[in-house]
Structures are given as structure tokens and as C-alpha cells.
Design goal:
Number of helices: 10
Largest sheet: 8 strands, mixed
Radius of gyration: 18 Å
Order of helices and strands: HHEHEHEEHHEHEHEHHE
Oligomer: single chain
Number of domains: 1
CATH class: Alpha Beta
Strand content: 15-25%
Bound molecules: S-adenosylmethionine
């Protein structure tokens, strides 16, 4: 499957497809209490252009990392990075739908999904991806969560965009109720959102075209503006947990 041209241009040359940074991803990876020299099996779900895929492979230097995404275009970008970083012998990409993952039960020590669980839904993702983990294996997902009591604008926007946005406390309860041991969380800081939005805006300025392009640009601009007006209300939050 390939992505529409306007989508391609909007995200062209971005080193990642969600608010975040190398610093934040490294902070999250540091929460994984596994030997960095160990031979672990790692899966990155909805890897996009794979900034985190590469960081995971560099951190766990004897491990194998499999990265999946629905869109070949992103996987091609990641394949170039894999070869540039001499990681072709232990980092592999697959075009796959996260709703139908073709991996065996208990195959992975770490399953990582940055800004992608919203596609399947937080509750469903926790439930369906558990089978992929070895006992005590780590699941790390980031999901939009309320940080402060949200304004009516934030609440309305997210109700229409992704209706599983919730408080950190409620997400942690869901994690525990889902048969995981909750380990820790990391909030994606405002500066990560700002720099992501600034780069995205530069690309959006180059886009013009038919109605579907205009609708797409309007929606992304709205997303950026709602964040700018309500930056204290919400963020992506990484949840680090283990299968029990
Ligand atoms: C917001 S991006 C996050 C990408 C990357 N993890 C990051 O943080 O930069 C969401 C990713 O999920 C991918 N995606 C969308 N639907 C998918 C599906 N059904 N199965 C697998 N990947 C999907 C998109 O192509 C995109 O790369």
C-alpha cells in the first residue's frame, strides 16, 4: 500500500512522524532493565521512518530488531538508514498491518510502539499485543494523555480525533487491569512538539491542490493550533510495562 502524494509531501524529510526527539526516546529506552549486550528480540510497531528503530538497535547492540509499518514508502526510508548505519544483519523491515501481526506468540522481549497504538486503540493494542511478549517482556507504547484538566477546546478536538485520550492515572489502571506490571511513564516535552510542528508547518506551506489536499492541510493545521493554544493540557506519554 502506498500513501497519497499530499501525505508524502507533508512529512517529507522529517526524521520522525510524531512529536518526540532522540533525547526523549533515549530516556524511554533507558527505563528498560535489560542487559544492553543481551541478544533480545525487539519489535517496533508503526515504525514510520524509524528514528526509534535505529536507536533501539544501537542501544541493544547484539539484538535483532524487526520494524513493521503499513506503508512501503516509510519502510524504504528506514531501509536506507539501516544500510547507512551498517545494521542490515540485524534490523529488518516488513510491510504489515498492526491489526494482523504475523508473528508467533511469545516471540519478543521488547515490543515498542511510538505514537501508533491510537490506530488500533489503546485498550485493544494492550490486549492484542500481549501474546507477542515473552513472560516479563516489555511493552512500551506512547499515547495522547491528559496532563492537566483539559479546556473544552482540547476535549472537543480529541473527542473527534481519538476518543481514548485519558488521564495518566486511568491509563495506568488500564495497564494493570490488562495483566501488565506498570513500570514508569515519560511525558513527551513541549519542545519536542514545537520542533515537530515547526517542521511540519514548513512542509504544509508547500502544499496546494485539490479538495482532499486542502482538507488534509486544514486538519493538520487545526491539530497544530489546538496544541499551541492548549499545550499544558495533553501530550504523548510513554507507558513502560512488563507482561506478568
Ligand atoms: C504517527 S506515525 C508514528 C511513526 C513513528 N513511530 C514515529 O514516532 O515517528 C504512525 C505510523 O503508523 C503507521 N500505520 C498507520 N496505520 C497502520 C497499520 N494499520 N499498521 C501498521 N502501521 C500503520 C503509519 O504509516 C505511521 O508510520
Amino acid at each position: 500500500m502506498d500513501i497519497p502524494l499530499y501525505f508524502y509531501i507533508a512529512y517529507r524529510d522529517l526524521d520522525r512522524l510524531s512529536p518526540g526527539s532522540v533525547v526523549t526516546t533515549k530516556k524511554v529506552i533507558d527505563k528498560i532493565d535489560l542487559d544492553i549486550d543481551g541478544e533480545w528480540n525487539i519489535l517496533d510497531i508503526g515504525c514510520g521512518v524509524g528514528q526509534a528503530t535505529i536507536l533501539l538497535a544501537e542501544h541493544f547492540k547484539n539484538s535483532e530488531v524487526e520494524a513493521i509499518d503499513l506503508f512501503v514508502h516509510y519502510l524504504n526510508v528506514l531501509d536506507e538508514k539501516i544500510s547507512k548505519n551498517n545494521l542490515s544483519d540485524r534490523v529488518f523491515t516488513y510491510q504489515m498491518d498492526m491489526r494482523d501481526l504475523d508473528f508467533a506468540n511469545e516471540e519478543f522481549d521488547i515490543v515498542y510502539a511510538e505514537a501508533s497504538i491510537e490506530i488500533i486503540g489503546f485498550g485493544k493494542g494492550l490486549k492484542e499485543w500481549k501474546r507477542l511478549l515473552k513472560p516479563n517482556g516489555y511493552l512500551i507504547v506512547s499515547d495522547v494523555s491528559w496532563i492537566e484538566k483539559p479546556s473544552s477546546e482540547s476535549r472537543k478536538f480529541w473527542k473527534n480525533t481519538y476518543d481514548e485520550v485519558d488521564t495518566i492515572e486511568n491509563k495506568i489502571s488500564q495497564i494493570s487491569d490488562g495483566g501488565y506490571e506498570f513500570i514508569d511513564y515519560v511525558i513527551v516535552p513541549m519542545e519536542d512538539w514545537r520542533s515537530f510542528h515547526n517542521k511540519l508547518e514548513e512542509n504544509l506551506a508547500k502544499l496546494n491542490g485539490d479538495k482532499s489536499t486542502r482538507d488534509f492541510v486544514r486538519q493538520l493545521k487545526k491539530e497544530i493550533n489546538v496544541y499551541r493554544q492548549n499545550s499544558d493540557d495533553y501530550s504523548y506519554v510513554f507507558y513502560i510495562m512488563r507482561r506478568v
